[in-house]
């Protein structure tokens, strides 16, 4: 990565750190900001699976539920400290991901989509019935996180925990992509048979991709549980609808880009908020569907790429302009 | 008791089979798994409901109208959403059908509201055969389903359109060289598939009740039926649907009816694990 890119990321982190206290957002908007970052973590995890490993998942809402309930159970029933519960729920969700990855070894494309869709529906159904673990319809109340006696009570203070974790996970993702694992995943995505011929253990990397992706989502699930303060298995974030929204995030932002995942997550979190005042109740859903179709048809590489292309065109235009001037002078 | 369970199992299984046949028809010809199938069927069912309640049409008038609507919807979806990206990778096509699923579901919520309605059955009442109590609507559903499948298989086997569909599903390029208008075949399969979905939707609605999310579980069952029987043959989804219907009926008696989708998921995973081609499927070689 070049220096220019480093600087732009540092500036971005500075903005993300400083803007919320400066703006002093009301609670509901700060909540959405927290949520955007949590969804960004899910989107990065999903992108690792879909964008880099080339596997489809329509069940990430279920992974989020697994992470959220694991964390809630650990902190409420077993009195495990928040930060340990956070990592444990990531790991446990990762294991669930590996388990789902095992049957997925034999599947590809459409079949994988069907199987993961089934997984998503099944988990919600099981959680709704398993009331001793999830509290069922009456719900449970995950505690606000605490560290060295400081309670992260406000959405603003919690925002910084999420922000730090997001940065850590982004750096982790970079390192995964830029090393052997990432290269193998991408080789597998581009051609499974060619990857096999190159000596890549396809089964291992497929399961690993599912595990990693679920790990990210589990971390996000834990963060989500403690953000909510009250949750039931019927929460929209755990449903198939949300799994589709996660997919929409990375499609809109750009499949196979980290920045795209973050952009997509932010767009998809704020879109329902923006359209909520309009008379059509399900407008954000209609818009989302229309956007992802448009993106696939017109910008198959997502908005992050579309932006780069626009910049490219602009620069070319500018360059041509300069050329013309030079020509005129020569005459 | 057993006869009763078999009949009601076959009745629901037949409906899963119809929806699954719609999926397989499209999959075999254009390599797309249509995730919007359930939502399209839901929308058509709502058309039937609205024309019945708001415009005072009879059941069968509304039924026919809904089927007309379904065919137009199927045509539009194929022509304007799928055809422009026909040759795109699987993932793109999948995402487009998922996008359609969101749009259709959203528009239905906007146009028809989010309340749950009760949808009338074809006929009421029960019959007693050999001591088993069988609802008339179950029996009639079964008869109609078998009849529709009969027509469909006759068409696939003996009519020109059916032969064109089968040829396209074997190899679109060669079919085109043989003078088959492959694009028309795509249109036909989407229209037929949409109609099959709508029929399944209207027959299932009396038991599941009608709301914008009614078809999400039915779609999963249709997928299960298709996976069980195999995506590669036309007989597969019928076999898969009937087996699923009966199994589900028996399982709901012993396990819990609330876990029916979990049951379907377990079947999908087991089947894909043991025999990914399905019970009656053929193995398709992979091109490198």
Automatic annotation (TrEMBL), chain A:
Ranges that cross the membrane: 7-23, 29-49, 56-76, 82-105, 112-137, 157-177, 208-227, 247-271, 283-308
Domain of life: Bacteria
Localization per record: Cell membrane
Species name: Thermoanaerobacter thermohydrosulfuricus WC1
CDD domains the record matches: TM_PBP1_LivM_like
InterPro entries: ABC_transp_permease, LivM-like
Any one GO molecular-function label of the UniProt entry: branched-chain amino acid transmembrane transporter activity
Principal location listed in the UniProt entry: membrane
A Gene Ontology term for the protein's cellular component: plasma membrane
Protein name from the UniProt record: ABC-type branched-chain amino acid transport system, permease component
Coiled-coil ranges from the UniProt annotation: none
Membrane-topology annotation of the record: Multi-pass membrane protein
Pfam families the UniProt entry points to: BPD_transp_2 (PF02653)
Keywords linked to the UniProt accession: Cell membrane, Membrane, Transmembrane, Transmembrane helix
Automatic annotation (TrEMBL), chain B:
GO cellular component, one term: plasma membrane
UniProt entry keywords in alphabetical sequence: Amino-acid transport, Cell membrane, Membrane, Transmembrane, Transmembrane helix, Transport
Pfam families documented for this protein: BPD_transp_2 (PF02653)
Keyword Glycoprotein: no
Membrane-protein topology: Multi-pass membrane protein
Biological process, per Gene Ontology: amino acid transport
Transmembrane spans: 6-27, 63-81, 93-113, 133-156, 177-205, 225-247, 254-274
Keyword Cell membrane part of the UniProt annotation: yes
Domain of life assignment: Bacteria
UniProt cross-references to InterPro entries, sorted A to Z: ABC_transp_permease, BCAA_transport_permease
Coarse class of the protein's main subcellular location: membrane
Descriptive protein name: Branched-chain amino acid ABC-type transport system, permease component
PANTHER family: ABC TRANSPORTER PERMEASE PROTEIN (PTHR11795:SF451), BRANCHED-CHAIN AMINO ACID TRANSPORT SYSTEM PERMEASE PROTEIN LIVH (PTHR11795)
Compartment(s) of residence: Cell membrane
Similarity comment: Belongs to the binding-protein-dependent transport system permease family. LivHM subfamily.
Species the sequence originates in: Thermoanaerobacter thermohydrosulfuricus WC1
A GO term, aspect molecular function: transmembrane transporter activity
């Amino acid at each position: 990565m070049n220096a220019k890119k480093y600087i732009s990321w540092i500036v971005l982190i500075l903005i993300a750190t400083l803007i919320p206290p400066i703006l002093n957002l009301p609670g509901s908007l700060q909540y959405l900001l927290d949520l955007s970052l949590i969804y960004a973590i899910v989107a990065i995890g999903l992108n690792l699976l879909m964008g880099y490993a080339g596997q489809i998942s329509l069940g990430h809402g279920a992974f989020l539920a697994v992470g959220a309930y694991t964390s809630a159970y650990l902190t409420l029933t077993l009195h495990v400290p928040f930060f340990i519960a956070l990592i444990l729920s990531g790991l446990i969700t990762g294991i669930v991901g590996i388990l789902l990855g095992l049957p997925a070894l034999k599947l590809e494309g459409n079949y994988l989509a069907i199987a993961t869709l089934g997984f998503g529906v099944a988990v919600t159904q099981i959680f709704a019935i398993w009331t001793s673990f999830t509290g069922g319809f009456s719900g449970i109340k995950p505690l606000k996180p605490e560290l060295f006696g400081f309670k992260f009570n406000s959405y603003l203070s919690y925002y910084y925990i999420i922000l730090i974790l997001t940065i850590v996970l982004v750096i982790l993702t970079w390192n995964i992509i830029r090393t052997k694992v990432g290269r193998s995943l991408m080789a597998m995505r581009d051609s499974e048979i060619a990857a096999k011929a190159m000596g890549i253990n396809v089964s291992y990397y497929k399961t690993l991709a599912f595990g990693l992706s679920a790990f990210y989502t589990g971390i996000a699930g834990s963060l989500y549980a403690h953000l909510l303060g009250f949750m039931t298995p019927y929460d929209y974030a755990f449903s198939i609808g949300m799994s589709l929204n996660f997919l929409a995030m990375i499609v809109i932002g750009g499949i196979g880009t980290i920045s795209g995942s973050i952009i997509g997550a932010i767009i998809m979190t704020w879109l329902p908020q923006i359209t909520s005042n309009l008379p059509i109740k399900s407008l954000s859903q209609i818009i989302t569907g229309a956007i992802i179709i448009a993106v696939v048809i017109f910008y198959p590489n997502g908005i992050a790429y579309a932006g780069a292309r626009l910049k490219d065109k602009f620069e070319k235009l500018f360059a041509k302009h300069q050329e013309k001037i030079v020509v005129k002078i020569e005459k | 008791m057993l006869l009763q369970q078999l009949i009601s199992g076959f009745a629901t299984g037949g409906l899963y089979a119809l929806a699954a046949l719609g999926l397989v028809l499209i999959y075999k010809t254009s390599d797309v798994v249509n995730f919007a199938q359930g939502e399209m069927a839901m929308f058509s069912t709502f058309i039937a409901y609205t024309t019945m309640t708001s415009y005072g049409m009879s059941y069968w008038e509304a039924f026919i109208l809904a089927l007309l609507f379904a065919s137009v919807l199927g045509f539009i979806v194929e022509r304007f959403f799928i055809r422009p990206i026909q040759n795109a990778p699987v993932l793109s096509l999948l995402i487009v059908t998922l996008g359609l699923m969101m749009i259709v579901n959203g528009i239905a919520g906007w146009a028809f509201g989010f309340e749950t309605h009760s949808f009338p059955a074809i006929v009421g009442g029960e019959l007693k055969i050999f001591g088993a109590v069988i609802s008339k609507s179950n029996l009639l559903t079964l008869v109609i389903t078998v009849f529709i499948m009969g027509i469909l298989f006759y068409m696939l086997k003996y009519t020109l359109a059916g032969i064109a569909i089968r040829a396209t599903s074997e190899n679109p390029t060669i079919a085109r060289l043989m003078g088959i208008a492959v694009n028309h075949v795509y249109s036909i399969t989407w229209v037929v598939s949409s109609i099959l979905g709508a029929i399944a939707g209207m027959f299932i609605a009396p038991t599941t009740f009608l709301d914008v999310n009614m078809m999400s579980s039915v779609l999963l069952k249709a997928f299960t039926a298709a996976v069980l029987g195999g995506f590669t043959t036309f007989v597969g989804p019928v076999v898969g649907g009937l087996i699923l219907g009966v199994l589900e009926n028996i399982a709901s008696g012993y396990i819990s009816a609330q876990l029916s989708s979990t049951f379907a998921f377990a079947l999908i995973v087991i089947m894909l694990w043991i025999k990914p081609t399905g019970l009656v499927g053929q193995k398709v070689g992979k091109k490198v």
